[in-house]
Amino acid sequence: xxxxxxxxxxxxxxxxxxxxxxxxxxxxxxxxxxxxxxxxxxxxxxxxxxxxxxxxxxxxxxxxxxxxxxxxxxxxxxxxxxxxxxxxxxxxxxxxxxxxxxxxxxxxxxxxxxxxxxxxxxxxxxxxxxxxxxxxxxxxxxxxxxxxxxxxxxxxxxxxxxxxxxxxxxxxxxxxxxxxxxxxxxxxxxxxxxxxxxxxxxxxxxxxxxxxxxxxxxxxxxxxxxxxxxxxxxxxxxxxxxxxxxxxxxxxxxxxxxxxxxxxxxxxxxxxxxxxxxxxxxxxxxxxxxxxxxxxxxxxxxxxxxxxxxxxxxxxxxxxxxx
Length: 323
Fold this sequence. Notes:
By secondary structure, the protein is an alpha+beta fold. The chain contains eight helices and 14 strands. The chain has helices at about 30-40, 130-150, 170-180, 200-215, 230-240, 280-295, 295-300, 305-320; strands spanning about 5-20, 25, 45-50, 50-60, 70-85, 90-100, 105-110, 115-120, 160-165, 180-190, 220-225, 245-255, 260-265, 270-275. Strands 1, 2, 3, 4, 5, 6, 7, 8, 9 and 14 form a ten-stranded antiparallel β-sheet that branches. A hairpin with a 5-residue loop joins β1 (about 5-20) and β2. The longest helix has 23 residues, at about 130-150. The protein is globular and about 70 Å long. The two termini are about 35 Å apart.
């Protein structure tokens, strides 16, 4: 396989829930046609520093097993500045040049269970954090504009979008990230409204659903102070399967023996891989990515709730498929 064919990818849970009247929490597909697709295709631009982020090439594809999949690009439009270079003698040459650049990443969202593959096209491509921030901004902006236009018309306002994009924990990454850790000072498990996923059982399920909803919270943090059994911690986080966001605060020793405290966020412990994508036109590359995702257990698993929500809303998806 050629090195240039390899593309860095990450598996995540694209968990979008709409928060409505009386604390109702409705899944993404309930508002697929009324909010989700219009927001993603609204031609918004999100500015961040000297860069602009936007979505393009939004399409609905049908995988070989018949599941509908949403695909698209997030583009980072920016300007690269070149202030120096070296000549053939390795001497520094001063320059003052600017070049427009628009690196992109590909995202594939499997609509039956809202798992996603996020694939960077090149160095400098947008990150999954850029994707989350951009999607959240566009959804909020669309709902705000629509609700503003509904004022005084005696019509029901659109519900508020709650988006969480959380990586799927991978045991190998957890072990690697924690093997040099001297102490876990704190493990935060961040619960959020779920989009048809099977929740934790027992007390964790109570915290996620009953307690969070009873007090009217959109998110709930369970803080575990100084957990001493790292193996059990790894088991717990691995089994969470992207339905909570784990954040570690840890202490480890540097090579010179000094103690250092740091955070380990979900992106560092999430399932990731290099995909061997045959270079061709963009549509062919995306089709390859869709099929690669279908080989991953973390993407193919679908709960009963996922199936029911998907079946009930499939007609809303079909209406957006290009003939």
